Amino acid sequence: MVFTSKRALQLERARKAPRKKPKNDDLPFLDQDVMEPGMAEAHIADLVEDDSSEEDELFMDTRPVDQADSSKWFISYEEETAKHRRFFYDSSTRTTMRRNKTKNDEAAKHSQDIRVFLKSTSGRVEAEPIDDINRAIQFLHDILVAPITSSKQHPTLSAHDRKRYLAVHMYLCARQNGELTIVASERVAHDIFLEKLARNYGQNIRRWADFYCKNLFLPPVVRGHNQKIRPMLCENDVQEQCRSFLRTLNPRQIGVGSLKRFLENDPFPTRTISRRSCQRFLNMLGYKYMNAKKGVYVDGHERDDVKAYRIVFLERIFNLEQLMTKYDGETMTNETKPELKNGEKEHVLIVQDESLFYSHDGDSSMWIHPKHPPLRKKGKGRCIMISEFLCECHGRMKAVLDGTELTTMEKLTPGKNEEGWWTADHLLHQIQQKMLPVVEALHPGCICVFLFDNSTNHGAFAVDALSTSTMNLYAGGKQPKLRDGWYEKDGVRIAQPMVMTPDGTPKGIKIVLEERGLWNSSLKLNTAKDLLASQPDFKSQKSRVEETIEAAGHIALFLPKFHCEFNFIEMYWGALKYYCRETCDYSFATLLPTVEAAMEHVTLASIRRYARKCWRYMDAYRNGLSNEQAEWAVKKQRSHRRINMSLINKA
Q: Where are any strands of DSSP class E within 19-109?
């Protein structure tokens, strides 16, 4: 027996029933222009009932319908059907979903609940859920008004937790008064937290309130509980590679781009490092993006030979300081004269240095309107070189000699087409013609201690000085005639002329060493020069500056290399340039009057304070402090010439 559905029987009966093709008058609602083939027959078959046996029964409910309305009805029906039609298979059929649910249920039988893997909260007792807002408000009120005490049983609330409890309390009170949920939460967030975070905190307040009403405590704060990952750039070996690379670069080449290229080529060839990460990494390595300013040259500051000479220099300068007048007090007018013994003379410290002043050296930073930027002149412009001597007692030294005021300052306009360049001859002329006469007038009967830096002009030798740099290996040729030398033999000092008699031909290095019994046929020019330069008479050769000053009965000292902080005239130059930048009019014609006005602007008290600070630097290094420690100690101790021992111990 074959079973068929009711729908199949209806279609079969409709096909077998005799019918004639309906006319437009009989079926006005079937528009032949919009009907597809077979659509009319299917529509008629749908109208056939189970018990209909005659043809006229199929059209018994037919009523006249407008043809335009029927067309619109079929078009809308097709569009609605196409709207819900799937264009691809997305596994959302009932059979597929039922099959997937069966698989998931079967797999869940052999798996543990996900809450098993979560860490349980210790010391927290779940309270019975409460829905009464009045009770929640009372609990919150008790927490907020409780005294601030700290113990293991009742730890003190943090500031953030107290804000959270207060926000929930205010929110529940507002809800109790009938205020809307979102309005109340955002108003409370605006009052307690930042205004720009009111919306986000409003959502949090609603969540906290719902949680508190169910559990009687607030949800834990998860801020900062994320996994801490140490960046690769923080590894010591990577930092050491970067430091080694940056040391090989010129200071002007160090930057974000160079570090980025190095990191992407060497340590991390398969990674891309952002410029922002490279900028942060440069800060981690100790570099800062800033204007280049003059300061302590640290690279050679702690070199072994520099430290060895610094110890010798500080020992001698502090021995001489005991014979100098000291100035102290609020206005630096309190004098402390040295206690001189029989035969001792008072000593005066005098420092010297040169500096350049440019006509276009104005302020580089200023208040600028973005629409009206100033037009600055290009370059630094023409300059003036100033060489000056300072002392603690007079500052800038002036004296009236033969009715004429004489100063120790010397100026020069450097340049190929100007007055040339500053040389040792200019310095010797300044010492002999200006400095020594003024010093003798201001400090009669005193011994002056002149302090110079390690400039090549300051260490220049005289033409006939005992120096191997201008000597040839053999006699004659183009070499100067040197002064007589000496050497010791069997404890007796023997004078040695550096020229051959009677024609006066200069001896070469070979003849000089042969006379001293030091010549070896294997010696070359460089090794022979080094051997002769190590002899006592050549090693004790002094520069032109030293010879000139010592011939006048004074003392000349040279600062350790890279230690400009020992020379207080450097701070004097800084004060002058600050004044010149403030009054700069970018004109070379007014540059010299501006510099002279700046010199008058710096007071004697300021110069004495500069000197006192330099003595503190020297005292810090004498007590064994490093460069960074000395900087810290000098800033802490501002009113004395010495560093307090307590600060030295802290440093």
A: none
Q: Which residue has the tokens 């010129």?
A: 250
pLDDT at 395: 93
- Say if residues 509 and 560 touch (Cβ distance below 8 Å): no
With residue 263 as reference, give the H or E element that holds it. Answer: helix 256-265
Contact (Cβ atoms closer than 8 angstroms) between residue 523 and residue 505 = no
Low-confidence ranges of the chain (pLDDT < 70): 1-7, 18-91, 113-131, 147-156, 195-196, 225-228, 292-299, 369, 637-640, 642, 644-651
Whether the bond into 502 is cis, omega within 30 of 0: yes
3-state secondary structure of 116: helix
Is the CB of residue 370 less than 8 Å from the CB of residue 345?
Answer: no
Burial 242-264 (b: 16+ CB within 10 A, else e): beebbeeeeeeebbbebbbebbe
Tokens standing for 490?
A: 């069997």
304-336+343-364+379-459+544-650: CATH topology: Nucleotidyltransferase; domain 5 (3.30.420)
Contacts of 254 (CB under 8 A, 6+ apart): 246, 282, 287
φ and ψ of 584, to 5 deg: -70, 130
- Rounded to a whole number of angstroms, the CA Rg of the chain reads 49
State whether residue 625 is helix, strand or coil.
coil
**Contact indicator for 49, 9 with CB cutoff of 8 Å:** no
CA-closest candidate to residue 562, choices 302, 249, 235? 302
pLDDT of residue 70: 58
Q: Which two tokens stand for residue 271?
A: 């990674």
